[in-house]
Each structure stands twice: as C-alpha cells, then as structure tokens.
Design brief:
This protein is α/β, with parallel strands linked by helices and 275 residues long. It has three domains: 2-71; 85-214, 3-Layer(aba) Sandwich (Trna Endonuclease, Chain: A, domain 1); 217-272, Orthogonal Bundle (DNA polymerase, domain 1). It has helices at residues 15-24, 29-42, 49-61, 65-71, 73-78, 85-97, 144-156, 183-192, 207-214, 227-235, 241-246, 258-272; strands at 2-4, 10-12, 47-48, 101-109, 114-123, 126-133, 141-142, 172-177, 180-181, 195-197. The strands form three sheets. The chain has a five-stranded mixed β-sheet with strand order 4-5-6-8-10, sandwiched between helices. Strands 2-1-3 form a three-stranded mixed β-sheet. Strands 7-9 form a two-stranded parallel ribbon. It is globular and about 60 Å long. The mean pLDDT is 92.
Length: 275
C-alpha cells in the first residue's frame, strides 16, 4: 500500500515507522499496537501522511493527553509562526539548556557586509551562529540555495565575535529548520563543513532528539489551549510550557475560567515537570 508524503512523493506504508513515533511519544505497547492496527485497517492507497497522523493523534488523544501532546511535537513547531521569531526564541531556549548563553536577532558586521543573525550561542569551549529557517507547514524543505547563502555568511563572519569575551569568537555556523533539507543541501553542507540541524537530520542528535532530551516543549503542544490563545501567549514571549509554570499569572490575560486554567497548568506540569 502506497502513502503520499507531505512533499507529494509516495512510499510504501511502514507500520514500524508509526510504531516508533508512538513509542517515542510515550505510548505504551498496548496503545501502540491498537493504534497501528486501527490505522492499517483504515488504510487506502494514496492516503496522505497528514491523514495518518491525524487519525493516530485522535486515537492517542482519547487515552492520555500528555502522550498525545508529545506525539504532536512536530506539528506544534509549525505553530511557532507566522513570523518565525518564536521559533528563534525557542531555539535560544534549547541552546541555553545545553549550556550556552544566547543572543537573538543581533546585528554583526562581517568583512564585506552587515548581517542580521537569528541566534548566537556561546560558552567557554564553543561559539556558533544559528540561522533559523522556519516553515509553517510540512513538505517544504530548506534547499541548496539556503545552505549556499548561509555558507557565504559563514565565510564573511570568520574571525568575528558575538560578545566582548575572548571565548566568543565564532567557530561554527548552524542552519536549523523545523522541517527537512533537500538531499543536495545535505551533500553541499557536508562538502563545505557547514552544520545542519533538521527535524530528523542528522540521523542522531537531530532537532527532535535534542528537544526531547532537553524536555523543552513549546506551548503550542498544549491541547487545552486554542490556536488563538497560543498566539496570544507567544506575543507575550511565553514560548515554552515551563514559562506557564513559572508565570501562571500570565493566563489571566486569556480570561480563562478557573477550571480551564487548572487544566492548562496541569497539562503543562505533566509535559514539562513541576509540582
């Protein structure tokens, strides 16, 4: 049975791929097998991955909300728009958990041009610039042109520093996308020594792996909030669900009922920890 991917290409349905994504979200074995069987029973030739995801999510959500939210992580990243600034802020928070100090949307003069940089991350042993390529829907990939442009910026910024300390000289340039890179972009980056970070690239320690290792989930994964409510929180720089635990009073701006407020905070605790 062939299924249609987000970029329009087709491939054979692989139940183990669905199993692994469900397991990674925390579903138990019985839940996984029940959902995979249900999806297989409803499968038809040409069925899109979006429909498969929606059906699996619907079945998962009926059993345990935090697991469903983690399963929806990739889709939740699409909600960090439309400007892409929240995605940059989310990346900065991720790098901070990994031990870096960060600056976002800074301007730095290179040898030949002035550059507006998305994220700079630095610590005593390492400093890098991250170019964030945000896409609002699946199927859109960052291509060769994006990577070549980023490599040109890397060359122009050689020997520059992102802060006044001696340890802030730029060592690496990282291109980050919430979707995927084209194969030509990946080959070019490997050839010139440019680092790429995508949803599932590289094979290990990719964006998904690093988010889950950090336990850092964007507020857009919270199922108890509507899209409009999530957008309102993002405008107030509430980026990750930990922010809700540290600043629960921010929910007053949404004019939620006490019951709804408690539901939101309860879900945030289960996802992100906290008492």
């Amino acid at each position: 049975m062939k299924i249609t991917k987000a970029d329009g290409t087709t491939e054979a349905f692989r139940p183990n791929k669905l199993r692994n994504s469900l397991k990674k979200a925390g579903a138990n074995r019985d839940e996984v097998e029940h959902i995979v069987k249900q999806v297989e029973d409803e499968l038809f030739d040409g069925m899109t991955t979006q429909v498969i995801y929606a059906r699996a999510f619907e079945l998962l959500r009926s059993s345990e909300s935090p697991t469903a939210a983690k399963y929806s992580l990739r889709r939740a990243l699409f909600g960090l728009g439309p400007t892409g600034f929240p995605f940059e802020d989310f990346l900065a928070r991720l790098f901070e958990i990994e031990g870096y100090k960060t600056r976002t949307r800074l301007t730095l003069k290179g040898k030949c041009a002035i550059h507006e940089l998305d994220v700079a991350a630095y610590r005593p042993d390492h400093t890098f610039i991250a170019e964030a390529k945000f896409h609002a829907r699946p199927g859109i990939k960052s291509d060769l042109q994006v990577v070549m442009y980023s490599y040109a910026r890397k060359l122009d910024l050689e020997n520059k520093a992102v802060c006044k300390d001696d340890t802030c000289g730029i060592i690496d340039f990282l291109v980050v996308t919430n979707t995927k890179f084209t194969s030509t972009a990946e080959k070019y980056a490997t050839c010139v020594g440019l680092q790429l970070l995508g949803w599932d690239y590289p094979r290990t320690n990719n964006l998904q792996d690093r988010i889950e290792a950090a336990g850092l989930y964007p507020i857009t994964v919270i199922q108890s909030l509507s899209s409009a409510q999530k957008a309102a929180l993002l405008k107030r720089s509430v980026i990750v669900c930990r922010d809700l635990l540290e600043r629960p009073q921010i929910l007053r701006h949404l004019h939620l009922s006490q019951r709804k407020t408690e539901a939101v905070l309860s879900e945030a605790r289960q996802l992100c920890g906290g008492s």
